[in-house]
Design brief:
By secondary structure, the chain is mainly alpha-helical. It is built from eleven helices and two strands. It has one domain: Farnesyl Diphosphate Synthase. Strands 1-2 form a two-stranded antiparallel ribbon.
Length: about 280
C-alpha cells in the first residue's frame, strides 16, 4: 500500500495518538488472524484512516483489548476492532494484491509475482464476499494499466481512475452517507495517485517506467509548487465533503490526517529534492 493518508504525530494530542494507534494495531491483528503473516505485512495507514472514518460516522460497538505482537513482544498495547476493521483488512488485501500484479506487469518483478501468487487463496475468499466491489476495482485498475501502456499524459484521467478505485473502497453499504463517502474516497484516491507519481518521478525517469509527471519534472521550473496546487485541490474537495458528515467521534484525528498528515510525505520528498545530499529516510 501507499501510506500517504497518515497522521502528523507532531500536531496530534497524546490521547488522540493512542486512540489512532489502537485502531492501527487492531487492523494489524485482524490482518494476521484472517490472512496470516502475508496479510499482516500489507498493513497500511491508508486503511486505518478508513476504519477511523467509518467508526466515527457509524459509531459501531468496538472491542478493546490488550495484545502483544512481533513488533512489541514485551509490551502489551491496546487494539481496537469492530466490523469496519475486518472490512478494511479485506480492502487492504485487495489493493495490495493488485499492486503486486501491476508491479509484475510493469517491471516484471519476480518478487511481486510470487507475493501475488501467495495471496491468491485469500483473494478467492474475498471474491466470494465482495464480488461486485472487486469487479469494479479491478476494472478501473485494468483501465489504468492499459492507459499507462499508451503513455496517457492526462493526469486528471489517470488520477480519476484511481479515484474510482478508492471511491468503491470507501463504500461500506448503500445508505444516506454513500454519496459523501464516495466523494471522499474519490478525491483521496486522486491525491494518492498524484502523490505517488510525484514521489517516484525521478526513479521512473531513470527506469523508463510510466509516470504522468515526467515531462513536467523535466520542463517545469516550479514543478513542486504546481504539484502542490493540484494536490491541494484534491484535499480541499475531500475535506469539504468530510465536513458535511455528522462525525463527532474521532473528528480531531480525522482532521489531523486531512489537514496536516497527508502533507508529510510531500514535505519530505520536496525537501529531499532541494537538498539531494540528504538520505531518503531522513525526516
Amino acid at each position: 500500500m501507499f501510506g500517504y493518508i497518515a497522521i502528523n504525530k507532531a500536531e496530534m494530542k497524546f490521547k488522540d495518538y493512542d486512540m489512532y494507534q489502537s485502531y492501527y494495531c487492531g487492523l494489524c491483528k485482524c490482518l494476521k488472524e484472517h490472512y496470516g503473516i502475508r496479510g499482516q505485512i500489507t498493513l497500511s495507514y491508508d486503511m486505518t484512516f478508513l476504519i477511523v472514518l467509518l467508526t466515527g460516522l457509524y459509531e459501531p460497538e468496538t472491542k478493546k483489548e490488550l495484545v502483544t505482537c512481533a513488533a512489541h513482544p514485551l509490551q502489551k498495547h491496546t487494539a481496537r476492532t469492530n466490523e469496519f476493521t475486518e472490512y478494511a483488512a479485506a480492502v487492504n488485501l485487495i489493493l495490495t494484491y493488485y499492486k503486486y500484479k501491476d508491479d509484475w506487469g510493469d517491471e516484471h518483478s519476480r518478487r511481486s509475482y510470487i507475493a501475488a501468487r501467495l495471496l491468491n487463496p485469500h483473494m478467492k475468499r474475498i471474491r466470494q464476499k465482495y464480488p461486485d466491489k472487486i469487479a469494479k476495482i479491478s476494472a478501473s485498475l485494468k483501465k489504468i494499466s492499459a492507459l499507462e501502456k499508451k503513455n496517457e499524459l492526462n493526469i486528471d484521467v489517470m488520477a480519476g481512475l484511481f479515484g474510482n478505485v478508492m471511491a468503491e473502497a470507501f463504500i461500506y453499504k448503500p445508505d444516506e452517507w454513500e454519496a459523501s463517502l464516495r466523494k471522499i474516497g474519490f478525491f483521496l484516491g486522486k491525491f494518492i495517485y498524484l502523490m505517488d507519481a510525484y514521489e517516484d518521478v525521478e526513479k521512473d525517469i531513470h527506469s523508463g517506467n510510466y509516470n504522468p509527471f515526467k515531462e513536467s519534472f523535466r520542463n517545469d521550473r516550479d514543478f513542486a509548487g504546481h504539484c502542490r496546487q493540484i494536490l491541494t485541490l484534491m484535499i480541499a474537495e475531500c475535506s469539504k465533503e468530510f465536513e458535511k458528515l455528522p462525525i463527532l467521534l474521532h473528528a480531531d484525528i480525522l482532521r489531523n490526517i486531512l489537514y496536516s498528515g497527508v502533507w508529510c510525505r510531500y514535505t519530505q520528498v520536496t525537501a529531499r529534492r532541494a537538498t539531494p545530499d540528504i538520505p531518503e529516510n531522513q525526516p
